[in-house]
Amino acid sequence: MNNTSFLDRVFHLKENGTTIKTEILAGATTFMTMAYILAVNPMIMGAIGMDKGAVLTATCLASFIGTLLMALLANYPFALAPGMGLNAFFAYTVVMSMGYSWETALSAVFFEGVIFILLTLTNLREAIFNAIPMNLKKAVSAGIGLFICFIGLGSAHIVVSNEATKVALFSFKSAALSGSFYTTGTPVLIAILGIFITAFFMIKKVRGNILWGILASWILGMIAEATGLYIPDPSVGAFSTFPQFNGLASLLPQSIEPVFMKLDFSQVISFDFFAVLFAFLFVDIFDTLGTLVGVSQKANMLDKEGKLPRIKPALLSDAIATIFGSLLGVSTTTTYVESAAGVGEGGRTGLTAVTVAFLFLVSIFFSPIFLAIPAFATAPALIIVGFLMFTSVATTNFGELTEAIPAYITIIAMPFFYSISEGISMGIISYVVLNALSGEKKKISPLLIILAIVFIAKYFFIG
């Protein structure tokens, strides 16, 4: 038996209209767009006293395990890693603001994973997924598109914060006058060029266009740095584009011992701990469901009823990965919206996820290379993927206002509130309220009503 037939039997490549080459390219693209977590997660967790090197190794291992589970159990091209937002909540809210130790916070993540497994085995998470109306599912995909785009614009500093207007376009004039153009302005220019390069590759139907766009932007960054057109300054988040090697030692994995199996269960019986646990649960449940809805809808994986086949093993992979992640020493491991980048490249099966998992494992040994990928190189990919996701708005029903207004709210809430879960929350609340007031009660399932009540209660009691 040759490798092609073996992989086809395992991942059903022909059945899903894909090839080994397409899947590997898709996996590499997904990994490149989410490799930033290797730099960001140790930085965030290090702020609360966790060993950065150990967190880097734990991040790689948790991502490897979670993504491999998704590949083997569900055969989907979705990648998992410690979630952005959840890691910030873990560090800055639970530890810094509420005063819990990071060991206690890890125990909350552990219990979250256990509860997720129970919810998945009892079909509750699947029922929630299926309860979301089809029009809202399309809106979730479009909303995630805008959200991803906004992340990309922000990471490249094309869009910056502004006291007067909240957000604004990066000012090249101000950068030039302040003498920081070669540090702050050049990356923005390269990111903009990267968008055009990636779009051109896409128009010309170049295979691996998003991945090639990332590599082209990265190469432009290295050329700019070598010629003095880009001057790194870590104090303002402008890092070198060249891998930093410090001998063979830099290629060896950092010891995981400082964070491995350090959970502390001594404070789990308290109201505050329950509030923390519920917050982890709420955000992860609906971030994961939102990602699965949006990415699978764009990849045409949903059936005629808007359901995702094999959703139970997909959700189970997410839950098991969270437990393993807590034991390894990282915050909640969750399905990444950047999986859309691989789907945009044609990834349709678990072989894409296996590729991502393998690259996360390899990055333990070659972390200097992957950590050198600058944000301005991956930003164009996120912006273009955002466009691909947003196209689902074309099939969204805007002719019926009880469908259109909740869809609109869902779409705009994600980028404006910087949260997939908030978009789903707002969308479901508005869908239930508007259809109830309009006498369209047949469109509202009991579970949808319960979800709306839970969401409203969350805003009053959790925030």
Radius of gyration: 22 Å
Biggest sheet strand order reads 1-4
Query: Helical percent range?
Result: 55-70%
Q: Pairing-aware structural class of the strands and helices?
A: mainly alpha
Shape summary: globular
Total strands: 4
Domains, number: 1
Oligomer: single chain
Distance between the termini: 57 Å
Q: What is the average per-residue confidence, as pLDDT, rounded to a whole number?
A: 88
Number of helices: 20
Major pleated sheet: 2 strands, antiparallel
- Report low-confidence residues grouped into runs of 5 or more: none
* Percent of residues in beta strands: under 5%
Order of helices and strands: HHHHEHHHHEEHHHHHEHHHHHHH
Describe the structure.
- With 463 residues, this protein is mainly alpha-helical.
- It has one domain.
- It contains 20 helices and 4 strands.
- Strand 2 and strand 3 (166-169) form a beta hairpin.
- Helix 4 (52-74) packs antiparallel against helix 13 (311-328), helix 8 runs antiparallel to helix 19 and helix 10 packs across helix 17 (375-390).
- The longest helix has 28 residues, at 271-298.
- The protein is globular.
- The protein starts with a helix and ends with a helix.
- 52% of the residues are buried.
- It is found in: Cell membrane.
- The chain crosses the membrane at residues 24-48, 54-73, 85-102, 108-128, 140-160, 180-203, 210-231, 273-295, 315-337, 349-373, 380-399, 405-432, 444-462.
- It comes from Dialister pneumosintes.
Q: What's the short version?
A:
The protein has one domain (6-242, 258-462). It has 20 helices and four strands. It has helices at residues 3-11, 20-34, 37-46, 52-74, 86-97, 102-121, 124-131, 134-155, 172-178, 181-203, 209-226, 271-298, 311-328, 339-344, 350-362, 367-371, 375-390, 401-417, 420-437, 446-461; strands at 80-82, 159-162, 166-169, 333-335.
